[in-house]
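Reviewers of the previous submission asked for a worked example of the structure-prediction workflow described in the proposal, so we include one complete record here. The input consisted solely of the amino acid sequence. No template or homolog information was supplied to the procedure at any stage.
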Amino acid sequence: MLRSIQARSVLLLLILLLCLGAPLLRAQASEKKDRAEQAEELLSNAQETQVVRILVMGCDASERLTDSIFILALNSASREVGVVQIPRDTYADYTERDYKKINGAWSRLGPAEIRRFYTSALGIPLDGFVILNLSDLRRMVDAVGGVDVEIPMDMDYSDPAQGLEIHLKQGRVHLDGRGAEHFVRYRSGYATADLGRLDAQKLFMVAFAERVQSLPKAQALRLLAASLTALQTDLPLPGILRTVSALEACSAESIRFVTLPGQAVQGSSGAWYYSLNREGALRVCEEYLFVDRLAESGRFDPEEIFDRKDHPRFHQIYLAPEEDLPLE
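From that input alone, the workflow returned the following structure tokens.
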């Protein structure tokens, strides 16, 4: 039952994100030549396949960092949907600056480069990106009258610098837009930190889908359309239509969630990162994003931006056999 609800929630959210009045952004060609050439070949191949892949990012309050990053892949041939979550603290060498968590790539690269960056790094053709900010989330939840969520623990967190106060009690709680924002942002109390927050975001998607499905369809679409006025995407109209066509062909029962394999590791500065495991990430991308022979092609992470060779622990996690994770 849970798998079915999760499936419907992702399909519903993607339809809403792509089809309810989102303004289009035209990406500009300002990428470095080597990255652009490689990405262009992959992007052109995407038009000839039966798989649609969308990069979805949820921005924080500053709209500079992406707290949520995942790729949705819709395979109309096999009628399957894969959702691959990328932890926000993932190490990635995309900038000369010291801050190298992947959640900073959006503010550093911008709409002109972000899709090509992920295409080149993962070796996967992406059809487009969608950006959802916290105000969009609040409006969506308030538009449907709030959501009921089973909160797994008491959540208490205070950050005066951000003006953020989170106080939620364990148990089944009705959340308005602000409460839903707090629920999906909270991570300090989870033993696995950001990975725990990823699980909470799945719970929210389930709760949101249940609420939307309880409303008459016309009412739900009308309310949500009015709430998503600031959504950003670089998908042109043909891309949106192609995505909707793929959605219609996919089986909601076949959706699968997964997080790119890796392990938390502390950098030399004391900051915590998530280091990807190359073998595990390759397996997930091939299996969940429907990319054939990715490992053989050498397209995955060709510049090794997910490896940090000057830090033995990062390097060890990156190269370890997936079955050995977590490393001691």
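The chain is about 40% helix and 20% strand. We consider this example representative of the routine output the project will generate in years two and three.
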